[in-house]
Structure formats: C-alpha cells, structure tokens
Hints:
By secondary structure, the chain is of the alpha+beta class. The protein is built from 14 helices and 18 strands.
Amino acid sequence: MNLHEYQSKSIFGSYGIPVPNGKVAATPAQAKAIAQELGGRVVVKSQVLTGGRGKAGGIKLANNPDEAEQIAGQILSMTIRGLPVRKVLIDPAANIKTEIYLGITNDRGARKPVLMASAAGGVDIEEVARVSPEKIIRTHIDPLMGLRDYQARDVAIGMDLPREHWAQFIQISRKLWEVYRDNDATLAEINPLVITGEGRLMALDGKMSIDDNALSVGRHPNLETMRDLDVEEASEIEAKQHDLSYIRLDGNIGCMVNGAGLAMTTMDVIKLFGGSPANFLDIGGGAGPDKVAAAFRIILKEPNVKAILINIFGGITRCDDVARGILTAMSEVGVHVPMVIRLVGTNAKEGRELLANANMGTAETLTEAAQKVVAAAQSAN
Ligand code: GDP
Ligand code: MN
C-alpha cells in the first residue's frame, strides 16, 4: 500500500523530522481558507499516488489566498497519469537553497534495508541512478542494530554535505529509519530534503510504501485507515473483504484454486499449454460455499475472462462444498463463459455428482483441464 505525500509527511512529522505545517483541501474554498491561515506564499500540491507531479503541472506556487483558490481549482480538475486529483496539500512555500535525496528501501540482494542519499535531489532518482550512479551514496542497515550515527555521517561526507548540516542530517536519517522500521515500510523516501535559506533541513516531499503482509495480519490498524480505496482495484477490495488472495493479471483465463502453491502451478500449466491466466486466486483452506461463491463472482466480473478453470484439491476444503458454491454463484450471476472444473480429494465424488446433476462436466487431470480451458479461451477470441 502506498501512502500519499500528506500522510507520509504527517508520519515523518510525528517522528520529529521537520516538515512544512500545511493542510489538505478537497475544494478550492478550503484551499483558500488554509492559505489565509498560513499567510504568505503557499505551494499547492496535487495528492496522487505517482511521482513526477511537479513536471506534470500538479505542483504550483500561489502568492496569496485568491491565487491559491484559483490554482487549487485548476489542479483539482487534473488527471495525472490516469489518476484523478481529489485532494491538494497547501504548504507554506519553502525558501529552497539545495535539494537532497534521502530514502530507505529493502535491498533484497543484500537481505538488508539500505539507506540511499544524493546531493542530486529533487529530480527523478531513477534517472540519477541510471546516468550517474556514483552520485548516490549507500549504506546498508543491520535490522537489529539499526542505523548507526557513523553510517549516516559517512553518507553525509560521501555526498559532500557541508559540515554545519551533519548533525541535522544524521538525526533525520535516524528518524527516517525508525519510521521505516516501526511501520513495516518497504520504502520511506524524502525527495527533496531541502536545505532552506535559513540553513535548516526540511522534508518537502514524502513517500511511503507499506508491506501489505504487515497490514493483512493487523499490525497497523492506524495505517489501514489511510488506504486510498480510489486507486485500488474494486475486485481486489471485494476479495479482501472475503479473505481471498486475489491478484488481477492481464490474461483471459480466470482461475479459482485452493492453496497458493497449487494456484501458481495451475497458472504455470495454463501457460505451458499456450494460455494466459487472468488472475491469481487462492480461496484458501477450508473455504465454504459462501467464499467459493464470492470468488466466482469476482472472476465473472472481469471483462477479459473468456474461460474459467477451477482446480480444487480437497483436503480440509470439501469438494462438495466447492460444487455447492459454484452452483450458488451460478444461480446468482449469469455465467457467460465456458468453465472447466477439476475436483480431487475429500468428497470429490459427491462434488462431481452435484455438478453432473446440473449438466456440468469435470476434468480428471490438471493436464486435461488446462488443455480444455486453453482451447475454450482460444475459440472464444
Ligand atoms: P514530485 O514532483 O511528485 O516529486 O513532487 P515534489 O513534492 O518533490 O515537488 C517537486 C518540486 O517542486 C520540488 O523538487 C521543488 O523543486 C518544488 N517545490 C515543492 N515544494 C516547494 C516549495 O514549497 N517551494 C518551492 N519554491 N518549490 C517547491
Ligand atoms: Mn518529489
């Protein structure tokens, strides 16, 4: 899950990282009121979950409250990289002398978090990494020891940060590490971290990604409320409500499987026979008819789906329950695509009988099932 700039900066602020004291507005009138309250020049910033908002015209300075209102109106009607702007952040305009990049992410290769900083901040850091990688200074963080002050100081030296800013830079780096660690983040980034005309460091932008696995086990109920449902797939939200692991893909064969390993195997076998899965869907162990029906509805709502493969290995999950779920869902939503079903394991015989009574055939092996469903999807195209 990605957090908006204003959410990330409010977390940064609560850890003591200096951030501007702005507020969020959803209408031009609110933007004007906030600008009045702040006084002086303000910056109006679109809150959308994508980078490069500045370049896209989604960040503009306003000299007075009237201008802030007018610019907010403009920005609130924009769509940036397909994302409609629904909120703007009104921050007091900063007096920027220098823009620095500072971020922490996971380095999977090193199996450790890594702190990265660059004096070439403000701009697209991926571009800096590509054109002049030597301008990015890195240090790995031992997850048990945490970021040590000497490490942050070495980074400051590596990027030629003037000595008078070291103390503040070290402190901000350490706090950013605490933010990252405490919130199970996979990214905590400040770009730009600016040096102001007054010689202070301040986080003007903020970006955080939170590990969804940490959220799904309930480690951060406070962050869960920050989820922007606007940007998430409606189908993925529905799946979450029914406790289904569902990921949309771009193929045309809908899959319903129990168990993550079997789901991946099923997708591989579909590909082996020249097909392409429309989703990953694990209904989990012990799924009853209701859950199966919910999964089925989600698959059927996808317009790309040309055929469906249901592959169930009945262990705790009972194949007759699955069959009942399929029949329930079919009576609720019209099934407009061919379906191939494979049931093996607990109560497979009863399940197959239920389906046979409803004039639905089943496949014996995964190979047979995959070949049939790929052929069905191809002839539908
Ligand atoms: P991004 O383009 O989505 O990364 O959005 P940022 O928040 O990083 O803003 C982009 C750029 O706008 C920054 O690098 C700054 O140069 C500029 N900017 C942002 N806030 C202010 C501000 O308060 N004052 C001034 N003068 N420029 C700002
Ligand atoms: Mn930025």
